[in-house]
């Protein structure tokens, strides 16, 4: 078996599966989120695997498939009082969204009656069946299935059940990477601004200054996620991400004192760009656009336009802050930091 070939087929299967639904946004998810998140979680878990001495190929395969049934999730079900309905493990239950088209994943989903199961359970069944079609060792298939199953942690696990579910380091790692990605660091910030602005715009308007000043509330609310991560390496990475976010907040607040320049050249301009993209966000494409078009254009403006010495210097400093931000965002996206 050619591993690279198989991995590339699994990636194609994941992107194909995610595109079988036509809807864009449901709750906090959007069309391109699942794939971008999958790639980031996979990269982060492979990095954590290297640090913790885990099986990196196992994490690569399981990371690729971990959210394979996620697009079935519709709105979160609520009771008559508007409270979210939890199952006995503490997972939110979702309405099921039927795909507009079918492939081998949706066929397996039907064949194994996975409707109504939370996506880590249905995803584990799909993973086991898909990997079974290739020449993997049975122990590898079993381990990958277990990693996918463990990527959501049931509430109130007994010590015994915890050992069963998280006895292997790879299970702990994927859980950690999956918890970190939407919540902690610049990747969490990217998600937060697109969610926050989307709802703000629906209510009428997005207030830039208010958003920036309130960031610590959001950042600090994530500290408990850091403390509850399962591996030492994850807690280290996550704490560095938290610190980085608080630093980002300080830098953004300082930018508010020079609004005009910083909305044009600085991090405030980046926020406003993200706000303009809330309809259909795409992490990788937006990052590419910012690097290859947004930033070069500002560099050109800073060099060309008639402005005072002081204005030019402030514009250049703002551009440097954006450059730094994009570099770190990209490195987080690649799971390096
Ligand atoms: Fe998931
Ligand atoms: Fe995930």
Protein topology:
Blueprint: H1 3-18, H2 33-52, H3 56-65, E1 73-76, E2 94-96, H4 104-111, H5 119-131, H6 138-149, H7 159-166, H8 169-183, H9 186-203, H10 208-213, H11 215-221, H12 223-227, H13 232-255, H14 259-265, H15 267-276, H16 283-304, H17 309-333
Antiparallel strand pairs: 1-2
Helix pairs in contact: 1-3, 2-3, 2-8, 3-6, 5-6, 6-8, 8-9, 11-13, 14-15, 14-17, 16-17
Residues 37, 41, 66-67, 178 line the site of one fe (ii) ion.
Compact overview of the structure:
The chain has 337 residues and is an all-alpha fold. The chain is built from 17 helices and two strands.
Please give a structural write-up:
The protein has 337 residues and is an all-alpha fold. It has helices at residues 3-18, 33-52, 56-65, 104-111, 119-131, 138-149, 159-166, 169-183, 186-203, 208-213, 215-221, 223-227, 232-255, 259-265, 267-276, 283-304, 309-333, and strands at 73-76, 94-96. The protein has a two-stranded antiparallel ribbon. Helix 8 crosses helix 9 and helix 16 (283-304) runs antiparallel to helix 17 (309-333). The longest helix is centred in the C-terminal third of the chain and has 25 residues, at 309-333. The two termini are 32 Å apart. The site of one fe (ii) ion has 5 residues, from loops.
């Amino acid at each position: 078996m050619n591993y690279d070939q198989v991995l590339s087929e699994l990636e194609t299967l994941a992107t194909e599966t995610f595109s079988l639904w036509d809807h864009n946004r449901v709750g906090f998810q959007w069309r391109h989120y699942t794939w971008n998140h999958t790639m980031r979680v996979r990269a982060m878990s492979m990095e954590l695997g290297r640090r913790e001495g885990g099986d990196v190929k196992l994490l690569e395969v399981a990371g690729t498939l971990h959210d394979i049934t996620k697009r079935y999730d519709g709105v979160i079900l609520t009771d008559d009082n508007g409270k979210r309905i939890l199952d006995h493990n503490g997972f939110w239950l979702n309405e099921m969204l039927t795909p507009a088209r079918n492939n081998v994943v949706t066929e397996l989903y039907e064949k194994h009656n996975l409707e109504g199961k939370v996506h880590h359970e249905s995803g584990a069944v799909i993973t086991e069946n898909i990997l079974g079609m290739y020449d993997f060792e049975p122990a590898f298939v079993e381990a990958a299935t277990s990693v996918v199953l463990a990527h959501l942690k049931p509430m109130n696990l007994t010590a015994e059940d915890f050992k069963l579910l998280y006895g292997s380091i790879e299970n702990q790692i994927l859980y950690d990477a999956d918890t970190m990605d939407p919540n902690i660091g610049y990747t969490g910030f990217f998600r937060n601004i697109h969610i926050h602005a989307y709802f703000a715009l629906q209510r009428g308007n997005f207030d830039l200054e208010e958003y920036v000043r309130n960031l610590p509330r959001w950042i600090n609310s994530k500290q408990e996620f850091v403390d509850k991560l399962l591996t030492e390496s994850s807690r280290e990475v996550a704490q560095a991400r938290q610190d980085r976010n608080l630093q980002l907040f300080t830098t953004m607040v300082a930018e508010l004192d020079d609004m005009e320049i910083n909305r044009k050249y600085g991090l405030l301009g980046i926020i406003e760009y993200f706000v303009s993209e809330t309809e259909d966000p795409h992490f990788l494409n937006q990052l590419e656009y910012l690097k290859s078009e947004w930033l070069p254009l500002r560099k050109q403006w800073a060099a060309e336009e008639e402005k005072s010495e002081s204005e030019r210097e402030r514009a250049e400093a703002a551009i440097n802050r954006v450059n730094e931000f994009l570099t770190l965002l990209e490195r987080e996206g690649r799971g390096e930091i």
